From TrEMBL:
Residues 55-212 form the Carbohydrate-binding domain. Residues 246-849 form the DUF5916 domain. It holds the Pfam family CBM9_1. This is Uncharacterized protein. Residues 1-23 form the signal peptide. It comes from Hymenobacter roseosalivarius DSM 11622. GO terms for molecular function: carbohydrate binding; hydrolase activity, hydrolyzing O-glycosyl compounds. GO terms for biological process: carbohydrate catabolic process. Keywords: Signal.
Length: 851
């Protein structure tokens, strides 16, 4: 039931208002209407065909006119409940192998139909049509197949775990055309793209959606009320599909790839330019009508977008986005409970930073990534609503190479042992949009090191009216073995966490109460990610939501939270926080404005001192007040602009610095669409922390010794931190199956220290004569250029150029001047890589038919 809306969540709502998502994005529903009861279920009869249907976007076959029609759509935004004026007519046909959908979208004039060309799975300034299918009619899980006026395909999955998952991809086809003031969409969805039971007569959940971008309006065939919690539970029904058999779902997607890599920073005596040739395959096998096996054999992820590297001054690791398709597609079951951080699979070897060179030695090779041998997923859901997921991945041994500079002799240092990663999930769907789940993650490493196991249970139970719900989770973590590379036992590390919540989930006013504990030994980090355990949290969430237009605005959101946190062991005060946020969209120009306001009276940061176990040392964070405001212009225009600005002011206390801490931030995100094919985007993020107090002592790098004069002490520094991130991107879409994108990012962060203090137990600080110059500047520069051509369904050729360089300047070399940093970064030797990858989709059913 918890919701903490921040500026980021407000910006996500912008994408929703701009047409980027469907109603599932409103997990906390919100309209000021009289009833929070779902609309009555509409029904549509599918018609069986015996003659082939030509997929041409014309609907010329006579059988189309004999099929029952779904029409009279209802507006969902910006004015919920209003019947559509420009009619939509949809018909559904089927045969033994495919589902066919024909839709005619009437409009007032050809100029009213917008048709920007985008890459696959990307929304744009375009009209679109969608079909939604709940093939097991469990009212929780479903499919979305969408096509735009330009014929661009999008698809998604819906589930309680992942909400709206656009990373899921299926192999299907669609064609569109424009006829006078109408545009037509024709889809062919093979049964191999979906899962359903063997019942002789199918009953599926069904809905259709249409977006008229000209009015920023979205319509559904079966009304979707925003004040009702959930999305799939508000669909109608598809009847009439009889005597169809779930097909054998078997496909093979082999790949070949070739790389040319130039790294001028390679050690002397090693090749600066290298080449490689790789091959492997992805396999999909429908074990039965409900379950599918997905496997990637000898995978190659070298073409994914570069990570956004940052300077990390916090006590916690940086969480990077997952860009590898195998780990983003069809993972809704494995993401339940947030126990799976997929970047752990194939991550930096656990002994990467422990490799050292002895006298007359140098490190000539130390791989920063673990190469996977294979990864496999088995997932599906039975006709009774039981979802089952199994995940397994194997990574090979990884070794660093150290060379004797005098003799040339080389030795191998193991940095990662052969490892096995496992996840098992059971997820039972229940009535009234409810569920109960059990998840287990396990990491087993060969050799002398430790293994890890995490088990969690989750539940959500809503009442019959779907107005109130109780949810919660209980997770147990366990580690056993020795620290990698030593005989030191990790000890019996057993930990747990739990959370329970209750709240009102439907209607224009919502609320939620939550309580949770994470023990001091809870640690899911071997296959998950954790940002600070050892805490007790309580929170109250309140929300008021109005979707009906009033005055001069389309909608209005107001939300708030009060939270309180204690250290779990020993039980001590940690923080109190109050938050209020709001945003609205104006009726005529679709300008969105909003703000985030928070007050945190006093915080004790037990993690910043890096002293374990926690409890005695903490950094005092004085009371702070933060305000962030943002606006986003109309995305239908050629030029659109989003901006945000904020300030955080800290109370003046008796800190050693006796200087008030301030934080400023600013962001600008202009976009210019030249035409329906070419778009430029720019992103600027700037922040300045003045008089930030943070941990200092210990080496700036793992090779630098600690300060001997201050051994045994925790040294804090008062510092100014200025960070700038610039991203420029251009996208040119040749056709709905061919595109070119170029993305350039420069990130710089400069840290300048003023004075230092020693931290004592209880939070006391005393100025010290610490003379080492800790000033530093970090720069990261990336270029990602991608040409992609989907030359056949599921088959692609991609050519990728990557350019990457980083620099870390210390002491007197550090500079706060942005353009000096940009020049230094560009002139620093960069790693360059050019790769070509070819995927070819082979479908067993098509092969058998052609044979």
């Amino acid at each position: 039931m918890s919701f903490r809306f921040t500026l980021r969540s407000c910006l996500l709502l912008v994408e929703f208002v701009a047409g980027g998502h469907f109603a599932v994005a409103q997990q906390a529903p919100a309209a000021a209407t009289k009833s929070a009861t779902a609309a009555p279920k509409r029904q549509l009869q599918a018609l069986r065909v015996t003659e082939p249907i030509k997929l041409d976007g014309e609907l010329n076959e006579a059988i189309w006119q004999q099929a029952p029609v779904a029409t009279d759509f209802i507006q969902q935004r910006p004015n919920p409940g209003v019947p559509e004026k420009q009619k939509t007519e949809v018909r559904v046909l089927y045969d033994d192998a495919n589902l066919y959908i024909g839709a005619v979208m009437h409009d007032v004039s050809p100029d009213s139909i917008l048709r920007e060309m985008t890459q696959r799975d990307q929304f744009g300034n375009t009209d679109l049509f969608s079909i939604f299918l709940d093939t097991y009619h469990d009212k929780l899980n479903g499919y979305n197949f969408t096509v735009t006026t330009s014929g661009v395909q999008l698809d998604a999955r819906y589930s309680p775990a992942s909400g709206e998952d656009w990373n899921w991809n299926a192999v299907w086809d669609a064609q569109t055309s424009q006829r006078g003031t109408d545009w037509i969409a024709e889809m062919r969805i093979p049964y191999s793209a979906i899962r359903f039971s063997k019942a002789p007569e199918q009953l599926w959940g069904l809905n259709f959606a249409r977006q008229r971008k000209r009015d920023n309006a979205q319509f559904f065939w079966n009304e979707v009320k925003p004040e009702v919690d959930g999305f799939v539970n508000q669909w109608g029904e598809l009847r009439g599909i009889q005597n169809v058999e779930p097909p054998l779902r078997l496909s093979l997607t082999p790949y070949v790839s070739s790389y040319v890599n130039h790294n001028p920073l390679n050690a002397e005596g090693t090749r600066r330019t290298t080449t490689s040739f790789n091959g492997g395959a992805d396999v999909k096998w429908g074990i039965n009508e409900s379950f599918t096996l997905d496997a990637t054999l000898v995978p190659d992820f070298g073409q994914v977008q570069s990570d956004n590297q940052v300077l990390n001054l916090s006590p916690f690791e940086v969480q990077f986005n997952e860009n590898r398709q195998f780990f983003t597609e069809g993972t809704e079951l494995f993401n339940k409970g947030n126990l799976f951080y997929s970047r752990r699979v194939g991550a930096t070897p656990i002994g990467f930073y422990e490799v050292t060179a002895g006298e007359n030695e140098k490190i000539v090779r130390n791989p920063a990534e673990t190469r996977l041998l294979n990864a496999t997923k088995v997932s599906g859901r039975t006709s009774k609503g039981l979802g089952i997921g199994l995940f397994n991945a194997l990574s090979n041994d990884v070794y660093a190479t150290v060379r004797n500079t005098e003799t040339g002799e080389e030795r191998q240092v193991q940095t990662q042992p052969f490892s096995n990663y496992n996840i098992a999930v059971l997820d039972q769907s229940l009535k009234n949009n409810s569920f109960v789940s059990l998840i287990n993650t396990n990491v087993t490493r060969w050799g002398q090191t430790y293994d890890a196991n995490v088990t969690g249970g989750l539940f959500r139970v809503a009442d019959k009216k779907n107005a109130y719900a109780v949810d919660g989770s209980l997770v147990y973590s366990r580690r056993r073995g020795t620290t990698f590379g030593s005989d030191k036992e990790v000890g019996d590390q057993d930990g747990y966490k739990y959370r329970v919540g209750v709240g009102k989930i439907s209607g224009n006013f919502t609320w939620g109460l939550n309580h949770g504990i994470e023990s001091d030994t809870y640690n899911p980090n071997d296959l998950g990610i954790l940002f600070g355990n050892n805490k007790i949290t309580q929170s109250l969430d309140l929300g008021y939501w109005k979707y009906k237009p009033f005055w001069k605005v389309n909608n209005f959101y107001l939300f708030g939270q009060a939270s309180h946190t204690l250290l779990y062991k020993p039980t001590r005060y940690q923080s109190t926080s109050f938050y209020l946020g709001a945003n609205t969209t104006f009726t005529k120009n679709f300008l969105q404005v909003g703000f985030d306001f928070s007050v945190d009276p006093r915080t004790h940061d037990y993690f910043e001192p890096r002293v374990f176990p926690l409890g005695d040392y903490y950094v005092r964070v004085p009371g702070r007040t933060s305000l962030i405001a943002f606006f986003n212009s109309d995305t239908r225009k050629k030029f659109a602009l989003g901006m945000n600005a904020g300030n955080t002011t800290y109370a003046l206390d008796d800190r050693f610095a006796r200087e008030r801490r301030l934080r400023y931030r600013f962001g600008a995100y202009p976009r210019y669409r030249v035409n329906d094919h070419l778009t430029f985007r720019y992103s600027l993020d700037w922040s300045l922390d003045v008089n930030q107090i943070g941990y200092v002592n210990g080496g700036l790098s793992r090779d630098e010794p600690m300060d001997e004069a201050f051994m045994g002490q925790v040294i804090l520094g008062r510092r100014d931190v200025a960070t700038v991130s610039n991203v420029v991107s251009v996208a040119y879409t040749f056709t709905n199956r061919m595109s070119f994108t170029l993305r350039t990012r420069h990130y710089t962060s400069n840290v300048r220290y003023a004075d230092f203090a020693a931290l004592s137990p209880g939070g006391a600080e005393q100025l010290v004569d610490y003379r080492r110059n800790r000033d530093n500047t970090y720069n990261a520069f990336n270029i990602d250029a991608v040409y992609a051509w989907w030359f056949a369904p599921g088959s692609q050729i991609s050519v990728v150029w990557k350019n990457a360089g980083t620099s870390f300047l210390q002491a007197n070399e550090a500079t706060p001047l942005y353009f000096d940093n940009l020049s230094n970064t560009i002139n620093t030797p960069h790693n360059n890589s050019i790769s070509v990858k070819i995927l070819y989709y082979l479908d067993y059913l098509a092969f058998r038919k052609n044979k």
